[in-house]
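Model it.
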Amino acid sequence: MTILVETIEETRRRIASVRAGGRIVGFVPTMGALHAGHSALMERCRAESDFVVASIFVNPTQFAPGEDLDRYPRTLELDLDRCRNVGVDLVFYPSIPEIYPNGSDSTLVETPGLTRILEGAARPGHFRGVATVVLKLFNIVQPDIAYFGQKDFQQLTVIRRMTTDLLLPIEIRPHPTVREPDGLALSSRNRYLSARERSTAPILHRALTRARDAVVAGLANGDRVRQILRETLESGTGVVVDYAEVVDDRTLEPLTELTGRRAIALVAARLGSTRLLDNLYLSE
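Modeled.
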């Protein structure tokens, strides 16, 4: 049975009783508009923990002015059905005042070295909002394990760093990107794509796989890999490239030489008004 809880007090009370019994608490934070990628996270959480908590909260502090906060899809009943089908025990569905009682005067959390590049450069303040809300949710739920998708790789890296730097006793477990059959990474924003844009969107994954194949074949020059990424993306009709980068998977430092490094390619592109992200490790 899935329980819907809207207050911090009740959430803490219910989880405290679970923890008193020595059970492992797993947590999947979400902004709702759940899809098969979220289901995969929750299913893994269900398999690896005793009590599964999911949160549904469209976090206003990670949206910049002019971004899609107001039109971000809110599909609570469908989301609850998905949570029930997976076997989530508790869904935390707070209001904005519940999470931000002091409004715009809220304390903020930042990991500066990781948040001024890539997505952080394109969306100033975004990761400050992400880190802040995730820390709040961690303090409310106090999970043993928390699950995040690899699709938002920079977000995953920021959360790992915050968890380590603030000495939080939480294990962060990443989950591989879940894709459509044509390679498009699942995202709540995919529903914004027109039919024509949707047919073009898999070019992000094609660019990444071409770059990976080149590296596997022996290419070790980071700039040449970036060129492959960008040229492939720009061959798509209506694709506007925000960035096509090759970085170290721990520090997000741009790489010029890939030999001996855990390199990952990160891309962001716009199709119409929709901004898509994807990434792929370039070697095992």
